[in-house]
Structures are given as structure tokens and as C-alpha cells.
Design brief:
Elements (H helix, E strand, L loop, with lengths): L1 E6 L4 H5 L12 H17 L4 E4 L3 H14 L2 E4 L16 H7 L19 H18 L5 E6 L1 H11 L17 E6 L4 E8 L5
Parallel strand pairs: 1-4, 2-3, 2-4
Antiparallel strand pairs: 1-5, 5-6
């Protein structure tokens, strides 16, 4: 089974300098172009049998563009949404720092942000959707997942069976692609954060 994990294209929040998370911003014009280049590249080199996507506009639109290029089924999975950042969603970083400053030693992993989720809840959600994908879609040769940077980082931690307290993180650029393979006796990372389609 192959997992093609893809981040959405540039969103309007990237230009506004705000906390995005669950704030539902659409793709920019550049983001649309990135998604089209991604789709051409994926359809030529790593065409999936099915696409799973976050319902947030930036990811779903990226997935729709990919679906149109490939012609396979697209299923929306709410667990693929980005971190639920509660009261921070859509706030400028300056305003957020004043209204909702971090505790002196940071927010403990088990304590959620106001109206949001905790780091541990976020990690558990990623584990849940990862295991759902490899179980429910195990008969597909390759599954594409279109999601968000934070959730993708946790999916990679789940794949690598890292502990909840892991300090490692995995960066993903706009329409960055990760290709993983799960076989009977081994799990293989083919590549991480590939963006050559944007060149």
C-alpha cells in the first residue's frame, strides 16, 4: 500500500500573517496554480486510486483539482483537518500574543487551547485517521491524502511510531508531497516534502 501525503497550496492566510488552523481561508491564485502543477506531476508519476481530503477550503480545493486531473474518487475526512486552534483561528500573530499569551513554560501537552484541542488530542486524532486509512483502504494500491502541515507532521510520526512526547516535527511546503509505502514486513519512506513540480 502506498500513501501519497500532500499539503494544500498557498492560502490567503499565508499572505495575511494570521493563525490559520481551523480558520477556513481559500487558496490564493498562486495556490491554485501550485495545485494544478501538483496535479499534473502526480497524475504523471504517482497517480492514486482514491483521494482523501480535509474539508477545509484550502485542502479540499487542492484535492478537487487533483481529482479532476486523475478522475478517481474523492472522500472528505474530517479527521484530516488542521489543528483546532480555537480562539486563535484567524487572529493576527500580534493580536494573539496580547489576548492569549502562552504560559511562561508553554502550554502543557494535555491542556487544550480555549475552544480548541490539546497537543495530545491532536496527536491522537492523527493516529486515529492514520490507522483508519491503512485499515479501511488497505485494498487500494495507492491512497492520496490532502491535508495540512501540522496534521501531516503527526501522520509521519504515526507512520514512524514515534512516542506522543516526541519533539521531532516534519516540515511540508506548499503542495509538498511525501510518499510512504507499507508492506508486510517493512515500512518505507520513498521521499519527504518533494516540491520539484513547482520549479
Amino acid at each position: 500500500m502506498g500513501l501519497l501525503i500532500i499539503r494544500h497550496g498557498q492560502s490567503e492566510a499565508d499572505l495575511l500573517g494570521v493563525h490559520e488552523g481551523r480558520a477556513d481561508f481559500p487558496l490564493t491564485e498562486l495556490g491554485e496554480q501550485q495545485a494544478k502543477r501538483l496535479s499534473d506531476y502526480v497524475s504523471t508519476n504517482f497517480s492514486p486510486d482514491i483521494i482523501l481530503a480535509s474539508p477545509l477550503k484550502r485542502a479540499k480545493r487542492t484535492a478537487v483539482i487533483l481529482k479532476e486531473a486523475i478522475g478517481c474518487e474523492l472522500i472528505v475526512e474530517s479527521d484530516l483537518m488542521e489543528f483546532n486552534n480555537g480562539v486563535l483561528a484567524g487572529l493576527s500573530r500580534e493580536e494573539a500574543a496580547v489576548k492569549y499569551p502562552l504560559p511562561p513554560n508553554g502550554r502543557p501537552a494535555h491542556i487544550p487551547i480555549e475552544n480548541g484541542e490539546s497537543d495530545l488530542e491532536f496527536r491522537f486524532r492523527a493516529e486515529r485517521i492514520f490507522h483508519k486509512v491503512i485499515f479501511d483502504y488497505r485494498d487500494y494500491q495507492r491512497v492520496a491524502i490532502v491535508s495540512h502541515g501540522g496534521l501531516i507532521s503527526h501522520l509521519l510520526k504515526a507512520f514512524l511510531r514515534q512516542p506522543n512526547a516526541s519533539d521531532f516535527a516534519f516540515a511540508t511546503g506548499d503542495t509538498g508531497i511525501h510518499l510512504l509505502e507499507i508492506k508486510e514486513n517493512v515500512s518505507v519512506i520513498r521521499f519527504l516534502n518533494r516540491q520539484e513540480h513547482l520549479n
